[in-house]
Amino acid sequence: MATSLIDRRALPPGARVSRWAAPDGWDMRVLDWPAQADTPRGSILFQGGRGDVAEKYLESLAHWHAQGWHVASFDWRGQGGSGRCTDAGNCGHIDDYGRYVGDLRAFHADWHASTPGPHVVMGHSMGGHLVLRALAEGVIRPDAAVLVAPMLGFRRGVFGPFAERAAQLLGGLGDTARPAWKGNEKPYTTTTRNTLLTHDAARYSDEIWWQMHQPALMTGPPSWRWVIEGFKSMRALAADPRLGNIVAPVLMLVATRDGLVDPRAALRLAPRIRDCRVVTFGRESAHEILREVDAVRDRALSEIDAFLTERVPRP
């Protein structure tokens, strides 16, 4: 498998960035890359994690696009190029994860109606959590779903099992829209951000390049409300009986040494999904499986390709 099909630091020919208005009028940034094939393989909606923008995943999007898929992605509300929810610098804030799900529901409806089928929805990290929640709530009904390192539990830190209570107490000391911490992806850790995300220094530097050249897209630390609502949403999803009603086949990729999200939460939840295949990665992979070193990333893409070939019929 080729290391890269494109220049990871340039928008590929045919891809376009546009705006989309959520039902409440919120301005959202969208990347859309129509298939070039006469008969498209179908359409993939790829949703990144907290602080992500579509440009971080151009390499993977190009991989699917080369196979004939129409690919698209939008920046979540409050981050990247979508309208921000707080004036606190580049803080990533949300007051209710239900707003994320509502945006996904509305965008998915428009996307599903305007793009060739079959339709596949993929989500990384927070995106994986929100895709799974939307599936459980029945507000999206794709033909298949792929969850990459889904955020179904936070990796325990200094507060251990009392982390949620600590977030509520600390966040309640002031404006909950303020940044929860100053930097990095995780507080109270000596592990560097790049080590938490990927072992591939070149792919990590791509993200920094995009932040330097388009600083308006950069999202810094989350707000306290984002953290508090994250605990709440993950707890509710773990207890949601509707997980067993999900019809779409699901592929879940889990990094068992993930330093950001709790892989055990994903492995506990997966058996409750009636049609879910789980693929695990060990110490060779950090959180961003699709932005890892070639050996890891190539294996992940091969697993996704095999899943799509087997479970998503060609049009």
UniProtKB/TrEMBL annotation:
Cross-referenced InterPro entries: AB_hydrolase_fold, Hydrolase_4, MAG_DAG_Lipase
Keywords, in A-Z order: Hydrolase
Domain of life: Bacteria
SUPFAM superfamilies on file: alpha/beta-Hydrolases (SSF53474)
GO molecular function, one term: phosphatidylcholine lysophospholipase activity
EC number: 3.1.1.5
Serine aminopeptidase S33 domain span: 39-294
Keyword Hydrolase: yes
Enzyme class: hydrolase
Xref: Pfam families: Hydrolase_4 (PF12146)
Protein name (record): Lysophospholipase
Organism: Sphingomonas xinjiangensis
